[in-house]
Amino acid sequence: MLRRIGDELACQVSDHGPGIPEQLPALPEPTRPGRRDPWLAQHLTAGLVLDNTPTGLTAAVTAALPRRA
Fold first, then answer.
1. In a domain, 22, yes or no
2. How many structural domains are present in the chain?
3. Is 17 helix (H, G, I), strand (E, B) or coil?
4. Predicted TM-score (pTM) of this structure
5. Closest by CA position to 23, among listed 43, 38, 1, 7
């Protein structure tokens, strides 16, 4: 789900995978592929919330939008 809430863009995605560790991993070495999505979302947005459940993972991210003129 993607929506605008005031001056923020909010995105929520759910899946039925195994989830991710409670402690987000550090940024992988440049030569190692993959596993950058949580790191990027955490460092390049206004907020990241991860909810691990027995049925999968829900990730919610918000990003600031430029103010309308």
1. no
2. 1
3. coil
4. 0.75
5. 38
- Of 52, 60, 61, nearest in space to 17 by CA: 52
Average pLDDT over residues 36-61: 90
Residue 56 has pLDDT above 70, yes or no: yes
Determine the pLDDT at residue 18.
87
Tokens of 31: 């030569």
Domain that holds residue 40: 1-17+36-69
Residue 13 lies in a domain: yes
Give residue-wise pLDDT tens across range 42-53: 888 999 999 999
Write the single-letter amino acid at 34. Answer: G
Per-position DSSP letters for 20-59, written without gaps between them: --SSPPPPPPTTS-S--HHHHHHHHSSEEEEEEETTEEEE
